[in-house]
Every structure is written in C-alpha cells, then in structure tokens.
Amino acid sequence: MKFLISFAVVLVLILAYFRFFPSAPINPVLPVPQGQEEVNGHNAEVPKGATEDEEAGEEGHSGASIAPVAPGQTYGAAVTPDGALPMTALPTALGTRDSAQVKLVGKASAVCQAKGCWMTLPTADGKEMRVRFKDYAFFVPKDLSGHDVVVSGWAHRTTTTVADQQHYLRDAGKSEKEIAAITQPKEEVSFLADGVLVQN
Questions:
Q1: What Pfam families is this protein classified in (predicted)?
Q2: In this structure, is residue 56 part of a structural domain?
Q3: How many domains does one find in the chain?
Q4: Residue 47: inside a domain, yes or no?
Q5: Residues 84/87/88/89 CA torsion (nearest 10 deg)
Q6: Does 154 map to a domain?
Q7: Residue 60: inside a domain, yes or no?
Q8: What is the pLDDT of residue 78?
C-alpha cells in the first residue's frame, strides 16, 4: 500500500513539473532563414524530395522561364566538378544499396520540354537515368540536351509506374503510339539533384 501511495505522489510531482516547466521538443524543426538555402541530404541516410505523387502532379508547378543554356552556369545549389565520377562508375558507387550520395558527370540526353523540370543522363548499360530536382526548387534550360553536366545529389533505385513513364514521354514530346506502348512498371536508377553545373 505504501508503494502505491509513493508511486502516486511521484507521478503527480512529475506531471506537475512538466505542466509548469515544459521542455523544448527533442528534435525541433527550425525555420530556414529567408534567403538561405535549406541544407538536406548531406550526412543523411534518406534523400528528401518529391514523392511519386508529386511527380505526377508537377504540371501545376509554376516556374519562371529559364534562359538558354550557357557553359559554366549552375542551377540549384553551387556545384563544382571536383570529385565528380563518370556515369560508368555509378554501379560501383551505388553498390547493393538502395541509395547513395554522389556527384556524377555525364551528357544530358533528354530534357523535359514542358518546363525543364527533369533531364536524363545515359548510363553505362545504355539505359537512361532520370534526374529530377530537389523539391522542384529549380529547373534547367530546355536546350540542355547534348551538353556535359555535373549533378550533385542522391542516386537511388526506384520503380517507375506506367503513369509516370507515360507522363515523362509526353513531357519529352513523344508520340501517342510510343506512350501507349508503355504497359509495365520499370525498375531503374533515378537521381535527385540539389545542383547542376553545365560544363560545356
């Protein structure tokens, strides 16, 4: 009986303490000062970015017109070519992991012709790696195809739905016949870039 009374008294004291002296949250979300870019992804295990649902609904995202491509131009976070790996090194950099933070250099092969909200880089096995931009915070010029670029961010394995594949083909200006031919989800490696540098 004494134990139950002691326990009740301690419990009341603890509750009273937290009532009158609330503590700060363990992991507060602090606002990012205006004009300062949010830092995310570096030293993190899971990349932050748009979900597949947001990708499918990106038509509603309004963006300013992008000037024609210019060598040396950076889009998004500042990127240098230092330490960039060629696209042929991507399988080794990713290994067996689902995602890896990496900086890659390659030749842009296709760009979203709606607004420049994605591009592709050819991989060593002849496929295309789709590059999206973190939080859709920036786009690239529609005439970027054929230029060498450095991308910094996260490579990750993903499954692209039929609807998303068809959406990307429409963005690229493909025919309805090519779009209708897509009937299966596709396993592929995609990239979420926080910055893009045009090399030439």
A1: DUF4920
A2: no
A3: 1
A4: no
A5: 40
A6: yes
A7: no
A8: 96
- Of 150, 146, 114, 153, nearest to 132 by C-alpha is 153
Average pLDDT over residues 115-133: 94
CA distances from 87 to 31, 45, 105, 120, 172 (A): 36, 22, 6, 12, 22
- Exposed (0-12), middle (13-18) or buried (19+): which is 15, by Cβ within 10 Å? exposed
Q: Is the pLDDT of residue 4 over 80?
A: no
**Residue 186: which CATH number?**
2.40.50
Residue range 127-135: average pLDDT?
A: 95
Q: What is the rounded CA–CA span in Å between residue 140 and residue 111?
A: 8
- Integer Cα distance of 116 and 160 in angstroms: 19
Predicted confidence (pLDDT) per residue in 59-100, tens digit: 444 445 688 899 999 999 999 999 999 999 999 999 999 999
Q: Burial code of 51-79, b = ≥16 C-beta within 10 A, e = fewer?
A: eeeebeebeeeeeeebeebeeebebbbeb
Tell me the pLDDT of the chain averaged across its residues: 80
Domain holding 114, by residue range, is 67-200
Give backbone dihedrals phi and psi of 106, rounded to 5 degrees, phi first: -165, 180
